[in-house]
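idk why but the lab printer keeps eating my pages so im just putting this in chat instead. protein + iron/sulfur cluster:
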Amino acid sequence: MKLTVTGGKGGTGKSTVATNLALLLSKKHKVVFVDADVECPNDYILLSTKLENEEDVNLFKPKFDYSKCTKCGLCVENCAENALLQFKEGYPFLMPTLCSGCRTCQLVCPEEGAILDDYRLVGHTYRTKVKDNLELVTGVLAEGEERSYPTVLAARQRAMDIDADIYLFDTMPGTGNHVAAAIEDSDIVITVTEPTPLGRHDLEMILKLLKKLNLKAWIVINRSDIGKISHDELLKNYDAEIIAEIPMLDEILESYVSGVPVVEKFPDSRAAKIFESIVERIEEVL
Ligand code: SF4
Ligand code: SF4
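predcted complex ->
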């Protein structure tokens, strides 16, 4: 089963929800937990563990052999990212940060060997054994890198290569292709939101994305007592259901400050029971 926890905006408590669900699910199932929030991965911190077993994520970039280049300009014309420049009578050259690694330039080049393979480091993935039934795969974007998509894909691939009952993804905020890459093929998508106008707005963006992907949304309203926002209209227009509401609870704050997820620090608390009720819903689908 593939389960994804997402949220339109940052700071909704998405990682807290995902971390607590991962811990509870791993009591009965083999879980691979994927932190695909590559710009700001923090699940390893919430789980009080470390990033281990580092692997590089490299992206193709063209390397020109000017002794074979005829300056025909085809590579420049066909680069959709405008990552290649060529001045009159000159050879093409690359602006690396704009390159998506699509290889189109290499494919259209008529001169064999004029464009060779080269790579740039865009991120890392890590694999950490958290406990017997729980492994964490984390994607981390390289410093200064803007393209998150290849690192999300690499983390996803590394996770899917591990044998498990449940793959639980924690996505980046937003609705870009990096989020779609983590969400697609999910059996269950849990969207975490908060009852504020901004929370509602971003929730609708995610619901639109899920509609395009033909996926149903399970909504968790975090900090449910901080505002009064009606979700009736959204529930009518999209395939969505509110499965849990988590109020501001002292035990969540205390567990956050202590660095131990609430389902472990306060297993009998109201907050832990809410997470258990979400797990029961998930297990109905398993
Ligand atoms: S790999 Fe793609 S994006 Fe990069 S320079 Fe070639 S055509 Fe442009
Ligand atoms: S397509 Fe090949 S031959 Fe033409 S300018 Fe680019 S590298 Fe040179």
